[in-house]
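The authors assume throughout that readers already know how a fold can be written as discrete tokens. What matters is that the chain and its backbone geometry are given together, residue for residue. A single example would do more here than another paragraph of explanation. For illustration, here is how one protein appears when written out as sequence plus structure tokens.
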Amino acid sequence: MTTAHGYAATSPTSPLAPFSFERRAPGAQDVALDVLYCGVCHSDLHTARNEWHNTIYPSVPGHEIVGRVTAVGDLVSKFKVGDLVGVGCMVDSCQHCVPCADGLEQYCDNGFTGTYNGPMFPNGTNTYGGYSNHMVVRESFVLRVSHGLDDLAAVAPLLCAGITTYSPLRQWKVGPGHKVGIVGLGGLGHMGVKIAAAMGAHVVLFTTSESKREDALRLGAKEVVVSKNADEMAAHANSFDFILNTVAAAHNLDVFLGLLKLDGTMTLVGAPETPHPSPNVFGLIMKRRRLAGSLIGGIKETQEMLDFCAEHGIVSDIETIPMDQIETAYTRMLKSDVKYRFVIDMATL
């Protein structure tokens, strides 16, 4: 066992504060790493505040992690001391169900083990995330990072925001000749724009804010539509092959479903605190449209995403913060006052 230092919430109303705890000693199949950077995901806030009503306290959030390997177990073959690695939203799964066998650990029939807010297989203990100085993770859930050293902080959000948007874009085979909508320009949305553009799609960004237009075009969108403008929306009726909806607040889905062409799909990746209003069934059946969902990505696909982003020079747009500013970051995140992801420099812990 080794002593780790991090920041934790101890109740839904307590601010995150310094917290020391024990990490297991690396086993034969484990990789130990020093955490260099950790992105700040909205899921961290949901969990710290128990907004999904499943938090195990004390809670050390953080699942967008970039680090450097400090030790490996005797059976580890893919990593060595000194390697740059990433850890995303999962650190284990049952490894024997059909989804796990297919490389879809995020859909594990027995429930994957989250990087924080476990419980861990097989003994049910809580897991503590990347708001900490070091971690020990099973080799099969560690990713290789091939971006340059100057990009490491901006790579961290790829481990959640990047894979959350990449996976559905790949699943629905987005590519050249496709007209793709991205709804929302936040931590997820700005990655969706970058990745869909790199895949060769004609990207249209939907936003409620005219002020986002310039940024969306800079990030790779070819067009920007203010979704509150009925005329702008009507001009795109029945024209989209695919829409990726990243908004994490309840809203009317029908206005976007009506933009899909025959056999078009809208996939939801935002997780609102309250349900969306139910869509009108006729908006689906009249054009054989599909409404779908997607959850992060499996380990193989996450590695594919990291390699794709390295090849295309894609990282997240970030603002780096010291660890002791996490509560301020949460407050600003709730106001959408960040472009587009906070990342903690763990050297400040």
